[in-house]
Amino acid sequence: MEKAFEFMEGMRRYPLDECGEPLVSLREGLEGAEVVFSDTLLNDTFSRLYWVRAGIVAPLRDAAREMNERGWVMKIEDGYRSPEMQRAQSHDSRIFRRILQKILWELHGEIPSPDFMLRRLSALIATRCRVGTHISGSAVDISILDRHTGTELDRGGAYLEMSELTPMASPFPTEAQRQNRQAITDIMHRHGWMAYPYEFWHYSAGDVYAESLLRSGRAARYGAVTFDGSEITPLSHEESDVLLEPVEFYRDRIAAELRLAVSEKPKRL
Q1: If both were cysteines, with which of 94, 194, 224, 256 could 210 make a disulfide (CB 3.0 to 4.6 Å apart)?
Q2: CATH class as words, domain 2-260
Q3: Tens of pLDDT along 36-46?
């Protein structure tokens, strides 16, 4: 988790030269490949926005077609997120509680400081637009289904697994599960989509993650943007590098979750 935080900090400094490329709908752009889209709401509130930058749609379609040839179907779990949608991730009690539980285990029951909670949460939820590649319109979260049975390919956990199984190179999945992760990643890489090392479902292209992981020496061309349904507005470096929630937010959330845990604890007879 600390390595993931350090990765995110590095991404804040990675060169970015926004190209201004528009967002396009994946529902239209992936026609010609057999894909499915999740019908879940983000944080039980927001409809998913299945849009990404125009220049990376065709490579994603080609990756989906290669998966079809292998007998798989790509399931798109998430695409572009607005800053408001990304902020809501930190407010999701299920995610926050799960990460807090892991931190309490890591610290042997010691209550984490707000700064420490922020460090750990930042590994799995972008806490600044600058490093939120969903906000750049350059990332997708995917699951993979068997084309004939519709069952999900076993990667050691389902989408949004929050445990020691979450990092792509986690040693805890079985050999078969690791092979599935690698086979999916190999296909995505062949079509220019790079795997985020700390979530086995997240892939991106053309952004700070991808160019850094490729060691391309190129500046990223996709940065954080807002989107009104037709046009994008790039965020400035200063706007995108501000924490989506102040450190005090994490202090208050920790206290609230701990109070809730005490109130829900079964009472002794």
Answers
A1: 194
A2: alpha beta
A3: 999 999 988 99
